[in-house]
Specification:
The structure holds 2 protein chains of 2 kinds.
Chain A lengths: L31 H24 L32 H36 L2 H14 L4 H12 L3 H28 L2 H8 L4 H38 L10 H8 L8 H28 L5
Helix pairs in contact in A: 1-2, 1-9, 2-3, 2-5, 2-7, 3-5, 4-5, 5-7, 6-7, 7-8, 7-9, 8-9
Chain B lengths: L1 H30 L4 H6 L5 H11 L5 H13 L13 H36 L4 H15 L2 H15 L15 H35 L2 H8 L4 H39 L4 H10 L3 H29 L8
Classes of the chains: A mainly alpha, B mainly alpha.
């Protein structure tokens, strides 16, 4: 599954698995356009909702209190109000912003550190690279949840602790992936040719390796982003992420849980929002893969 | 011979990883700025009361002494008592593990069943409308967090249809059947996403086998499709299943932590959350090390099974 703190989702595990996401043999080609556009529109919808919410939401997502609590859909509140009388649509939009920026930040942290360590472990000196590799293996046993727990017990939980925890948990996965991709490129004939021309390590890295690894890495980053969204919602549901009254989707779910019998829609909206985001990024990544056939990149 | 050497080496890795993990956890829990007494009493407490509590709990000793005391205590089963609740840490963790382990095991079983059904149906209907629909189902299943699936299962199956208990856990000693029953919904909610995820890999592996030359040759020499799949496809598909399972073990355990809190099951996840809320550092580091230890041990076992199924891997080991 995916779940929380787990960047496993369809991340190809070089070395053991055979990099499934790069096999498009089992994927019907003609549906790739549909997948791509469906994914892209979902992603754009969520991103737009998040960005708009920074400047404008129908009501204030935290401070506005309507006299009517748990109101169903009305003209002034299209998605109704929650158990404290706050406008559900505004909170959902503001939650999109929290999700988008925390997911991006976590993915950036993971990809940046992971690529750095991965490239180093692929081309560095053997003794130290072994240490780096083992460190990565060790880090695999620390899911985001545990890192978040260990940090929160002293410093309290916030969006930042959740983002850090998720980002650090991503590092070993990105590292492995980058390492394998870099080694693969290094073994190719064109790098050999470049070497015979006397090109140095750094130049080979800059001119041949990174441009070749980058497209695959960006696909991985999209998949990681959807894992980050799931992790973030799980952490804030447990109270280890963005604290209330901020409208993180996980917080909204844990608050709505108590009124699920009287107003199940309050659980449904954040669920749909999470599913839409995750689905959007997964489909987008899959669509791009099928279209570009990254195997040959 | 190769197998034994391999086993030794990986067991050594396992031990070293476990010890290093304990150091990491110790550093994060005990060494970060702010003494444990400050964490318990708050920063407003007087210096004297802080020093007294630190001394009482043994936090005035140098770090290496504390670490040594903790680790030797763990291995000699002197886990001590929680300084918040006064409960014996060993028995608390053991009783919570008695909930979490069966939960994860049941979730794996359900996930496997869901995955097999989805994968076989999807693999055989590959490139038809049904196949595409099944792919979409599995994609959606992956996108819904397990704790949300848990909420909907509670409403639908426990509260509306009244088939299974909604929350709580009677305990193994009072009712084995009742305990198993109350684990069904939690494990099912874990298994939905997990099964959907797994099914995509099995499906691809199945389609690969169906398209392979060796499968066609097996049919040509007179084997029936199920027979050919069993004789020649079994191991190839099992390797995929194991690989994904290995990757997903951590996800299942983490998922269990969250799902437990939805169903208020007294498992390791609930204990972890309690430890954070009570700022119970000794409980926290013990349970974190347990969870990391389980993950490491499971990875070790999956690795062994993986190599047993596919001996070729030894060539690179």
């Amino acid at each position: 599954m995916h779940d929380f703190g787990q960047p496993d989702d369809k991340i190809s595990m070089p070395g053991s698995a055979k990099g499934y996401i790069f096999r498009s043999a089992a994927r019907p080609k003609r549906s790739s356009n549909v997948t791509l556009w469906l994914g892209l529109s979902m992603v754009l919808l969520v991103a737009a909702a998040g960005i708009v919410s920074v400047f404008w939401t129908p009501y204030n997502p935290i401070n506005y209190i309507s006299p009517h609590i748990l109101q169903g859909s009305t003209a002034s509140h299209p998605l109704g109000t929650d158990q404290e009388g706050r406008d559900e649509l505004s909170r959902l939009m503001a939650g999109a912003w929290i999700t988008v920026y925390s997911g991006m930040l976590a993915t950036l942290i993971g990809v940046f550190l992971g690529t750095l360590l991965g490239v180093y472990s692929a081309i560095g000196k053997s003794a130290i690279t072994e240490v780096v590799m083992r460190f990565g293996d060790l880090l695999l046993a620390f899911p985001a949840l545990l890192i978040a727990t260990l940090v929160s017990v002293r410093y309290g939980s916030s969006t930042i602790t959740a983002v850090l925890a998720i980002g650090i948990a991503f590092v070993p996965y990105v590292m492995r992936f980058t390492r394998v991709s870099v080694i693969k490129v290094y073994k190719s004939d064109y790098v050999l040719t470049a070497k015979t021309y006397g090109l140095g390590k750094v130049m080979i890295l800059k001119k041949h390796v990174l441009p070749n690894v980058f497209p695959q890495l960006s696909i991985q980053a999209m998949l990681l982003f959807s894992v980050a969204v799931l992790s973030e919602s799980g952490l804030s549901y447990l109270g280890l992420g963005t604290p209330p009254p901020s409208p993180a989707w996980g917080d909204m779910l844990s608050e709505a849980q108590s009124v699920i019998l009287t107003d199940p829609l309050l659980v449904l909206w954040p669920t749909l929002a999470i599913a839409l985001t995750v689905l959007g990024f997964n489909l987008l990544a899959e669509g791009i893969l099928a279209k570009a056939d990254v195997r040959n990149m | 011979m190769v197998m034994i050497r391999y086993l030794y080496r990986h067991f050594a890795y396992l031990l070293i990883s476990f010890i290093l993990s304990s150091v990491i956890i110790f550093v994060l829990v005990d060494m970060l700025p702010g003494s444990p007494a400050e964490v318990i009493l708050g920063t407003q407490a007087s210096k004297a009361s802080l020093a007294a509590l630190n001394a009482k709990l043994g936090f005035d000793h140098p770090p290496y002494w504390q670490y040594w005391h903790w680790i030797t205590g763990l291995f000699t089963l002197h886990w001590g008592n929680s300084y918040v609740s006064g409960q014996s840490l060993g028995s608390e963790i053991a009783s919570s593990a008695a909930v979490t382990f069966p939960l994860v095991a049941m979730a794996m079983l359900f996930a496997f069943v869901i995955a097999s059904i989805l994968a076989v149906a999807g693999g055989l209907s590959h490139r038809t409308k049904l196949g595409t629909a099944l792919l979409a189902v599995s994609q959606i299943g992956i996108s819904v967090p397990s704790f949300v699936a848990a909420m909907f299962l509670i409403v639908l199956i426990a509260l509306k249809l009244n088939l299974l208990p909604a929350t709580g856990f009677p305990g193994w000693s009072s009712s084995v059947g009742g305990s198993l029953k109350s684990l069904i919904l939690p494990s099912l909610s874990l298994a939905i996403a997990e099964g959907c995820f797994l099914s995509r890999y099995i499906r691809t592996a199945l389609i690969d086998v169906l398209n392979s030359n060796y499968y066609r040759s097996a049919l040509a020499k007179g084997l029936t499709p199920p027979g050919a799949l069993w004789r020649h496809g079994r191991r190839n598909i099992a390797v995929e299943v194991l690989t994904v399972f290995g990757m997903q073990v951590i996800a299942l355990i983490v998922g269990a932590v969250i799902v437990e809190s939805v169903f208020s099951l007294p498992g390791m996840g609930t204990l972890l959350i309690t430890a954070i809320n009570n700022r119970d550092l000794s409980l926290l580091r013990d349970i974190c090390l347990m969870l990391v230890g389980i993950v490491l041990a499971m990875n070790f076992l999956v690795d062994l099974a993986y190599h047993a199924i596919d001996p070729r891997v030894f060539d690179y080991a």
